[in-house]
Amino acid sequence: MTLETPLLSISGVSKAYGDVVALDNVSLDIRQNEFFALLGPSGCGKTTLLRSIAGFEDPDAGTITILGSESTTPINLLSLPPNKRPVNLMFQSYALFPHMNVRKNIMYGLQREGLSKEEIAQRVDEVLITTGLTDKAAVRPAQLSGGQRQRVALARAIVKRPRLLLLDEPLSALDRKVRAEMQIELKRLQHEVGITFVVVTHDQEEAMSMADRIAVMHEGRVQQIADPVTLYAQPANVFVADFIGSGSLLHGVANQGSFSAYGSTFPCHNPDQIAGDAVLVLRPEEVRITAAAPTDNPLMVGSIIETHFYGGSSSTTVRVAGVDHPIVASHPGAPQYIVGDQVGLSWNPQSAVLLQVQP
Ligand SMILES: Nc1ncnc2c1ncn2[C@@H]1O[C@H](COP(=O)(O)OP(=O)(O)OP(=O)(O)O)[C@@H](O)[C@H]1O
Ligand SMILES: [Mg+2]
Q: What's the rounded Cα separation, in Å, for the pair 340 and 292?
C-alpha cells in the first residue's frame, strides 16, 4: 500500500431534495493526512456532502469508500451506520454542554466507547495540552471566549481519534481577529494530531490559507480540485476565477491567437487554446499603473475612482471608458495617485489567463 492510496474516495455521488439538486455527480479523493477544504457559496452542497460522508444523509447515487485502519482494501462507507464510521463530524453550530466543565465536555464522547478510566484521563490530558486548554479544564463553557469554546469543540472531536475529521464551518462563529488566529491553530493542530481534516468554508481566504488542496463547488458540482496556488493561477473556469481571489474579468472574444474586448486587442497568456466568447483574468497585483504619458504606450487608459491604503499595501480602482467593470490594481506601499488622475494600465501577458466562456 503506498501513501498515494486515497483515504476517502467519493465517486459519482448525487443527492436531490425534491427538485433541488444538492449534489450532482460529485467525485473526489482525499489523501491521508491531508488538510482538505470544500469551498463554495451558500447552498452549493457542502454540508450535504459532509453529512453524506458522516452517514446522516443517504446519497441517491454513487459510492464512498474509506481505507480501514488495519485493512488495505477500501471499505464501503455507505453500508455502515453513522456510529460505526471512522469519521467524526463537527457540526456547523457546535453545541457544548453548558452544565459540564471543559474536561467533562471533552470526555463525554469517550465515555460511551467503553475505554478504561486511565485511558480516558490520559487522552483527555493530551488533548487539553494540544489545544492549549489545560488551565481551563475546570471551567464551564459560559466562562470561555469564543475562540476557547471553539477549541473545546475541536478537542472533543479530536479526542475520539477519528481517521477523518469533518468540520463544517468551524470558525464561522468567531470574530475576524480570533478567526485568523484559529486558522493558524487549526492547521498546526491538524499537523500535530495527524488526522485527515475536511473543512467546509465559504470564505476563500480561509480555505487558501489553511488547506493543502481545495475542491471548489458550485450548484452541487465540483468545479476544480487543486492546491491553492494552482487554483489562483490556473482557474479551470470563469466561476473559479471569479470566486478565488480578487481581480477583474474582461469579457471579449478570442480568435486566431488574439483576444479582443471593448474595441481593442490585448495580450494574454494562452490565446491559441481558446476560440469564441472568452474572459481575461487580471489579478490586481499583476496590473501596473503608470502616469498616462503618451510615450508609455499603456494597454488601457482610465481615471482613478478609488484608492485604499491597508497599511502595508494599497489598491487603486480605475474606470476605463467603454469597459463595464472597473479595473483594480494592488501594490506595496501607499497609493501613488489620487482620485481623478488619468493613468495608464498595463500587465505582463504571461500573468493574464484567458478562459473559455461555456455557451
Ligand atoms: N433537508 C433538506 N431538505 C430540502 N432541501 C435541502 C435539505 N438540505 C439541504 N437542502 C438544499 O440543498 C442545497 C445544498 O444545501 P447545503 O446545506 O448542502 O449547502 P451548503 O453549501 O452547506 O450551504 P451553506 O454555506 O449555506 O451552509 C440547498 O439548496 C439547500 O436548500
Ligand atoms: Mg452548510
A: 12
Pairing between strand 264-266 and 287-291? unpaired
Residues 288 and 128: their CA atoms lie apart, in Å, by: 50
Closest CA to 357 of 264, 280, 257: 280
Closest residue (by CA) to atom 4 of ligand 1? Answer: 17
Q: Residue 114 CB: number of other CB atoms within 10 A?
A: 6
State which ligand 1 atom lies nearest to the alpha carbon of 48. 18
In CATH terms, 8-233 corresponds, of 3.30.70.1670, 3.40.50.300, 1.10.150.120, 2.30.42.10, to 3.40.50.300
DSSP string across 20-71? EEEEEEEEEEE-TT-EEEEE-STTSSHHHHHHHHHTSS--SEEEEEEE-SS-
Starting from the CA of residue 221, give the closest ligand: 1
**pLDDT at position 1, please?**
45
Q: Which numbered atom of ligand 1 lies nearest the CA of 18?
A: 4
Q: Which three cell numbers stand for residue 5?
A: 492510496
**Looking at ligand 1, which residue's alpha carbon is closest to its atom 12?**
22
pTM over 0.85: yes
**Cell of residue 77, nine digits:** 462507507
Provide the CA 161 distance to its chain's centre, in angstroms: 24
Q: How far is the CA of 168 from the centre of ligand 2 (A)?
A: 7
Look at ligand 1, atom 11, and give the residue with the nearest C-alpha. Answer: 22
CATH 2.40.50.140 fits 246-356, yes or no: yes
Closest-approaching ligand to the CA atom of 43: 1
Confidence of residue 295 (pLDDT cuts 50, 70, 90): low
Beta bridge partners of 258: 255
Q: Where are the domains of the chain?
A: 8-233, 246-356
CA–CA dist 32, 55 (Å, integer): 20
Q: Is the CB of residue 42 below 6 angstroms from any atom belonging to ligand 1?
A: yes
H/E element holding 292? none
**298-317, pLDDT tens digit by residue?**
889 999 999 999 999 999 99
Does residue 51's CB lie within 6 angstroms of at least one atom of ligand 1?
Answer: no
Which grid cell sits at 171?
470558525
